[in-house]
Amino acid sequence: MKIHQLEGYIQNIFLIEYPNKLLLLDGCCRADVAMLKRFICEQLARPLSQLELVMVTHMHPDHAGGASYLQRRFKLSIAGAEHPGEWYQGIAGRCKHLVDLALAHYVAKRHRRAKANLWYSPKLNFTHRLKDGQGLPGFEDWLVYFTPGHTDRDLSLYHPATKTLYVADCILRVKGSLICPFPISNPSLYRQSIERFSQMQVDNYLLAHGEGGKINQAELSQLQQLCPEQATSYKGFLGELLRKRLTA
Q1: Which residues pair with 174 in a beta bridge?
Q2: Contact between 167 and 205 (Cβ < 8 Å)
Q3: Per-10-residue mean pLDDT for the chain, 248 residues long?
Q4: DSSP of 13-24, one letter per residue?
Q5: What is each CA distance from 185 to 172, 178, 229, 230, 234, in whole angstroms?
């Protein structure tokens, strides 16, 4: 097994290479699909058909947008959490989907990325719905852990043999410091998820945002303390974005 870390549009992409198959640890952005395809077909000299599974840890644009596009274009298998309902269901959910797309564009602008089409369907047709502790289909050396808090259905992916853990957006590193994600839909569940990480044997953290590697117990404890008491909402973000537009 070999882990390839690629620089995505606004997040790290982790592609896992095996002798005759490939695993994508998260669905990335729609804007990443062409680059990912080139890397597989040109850099690795592998057919795209060897990409046997795309994981989606949660439904945000930089974790599900590419999966949605890949599913439509190439009929790939997609796996996510077994959880009732859809993250973006109903009118409120559709509004939240639009806000998340706006937030992704905002982050891209902050990173000085060229404008790109990030649109994706707010609903995926999952090939596999996975339960906590289950092995990934076709990649049973990886286990799925249910680690909610950022959303109500966040997944983390653990490889026991190498003590490697992909935590998606559960932990972010910005300017060398660990921070909590935005938003946090359930602070209590988020603190429990961080506590779960602290009980695991992890030598190598893979982060969707920022540099991974070793994270010690003190850093995890500090994250629990940094977690807000109340769920964070989009109102503050939208207000700040509007203020910047009006004063630009």
Answers
A1: 177
A2: yes
A3: 97 98 97 97 96 97 94 91 94 93 93 95 95 98 97 97 98 94 94 97 97 96 94 62 48
A4: EEEEE-SS-EEE
A5: 16, 19, 11, 9, 10
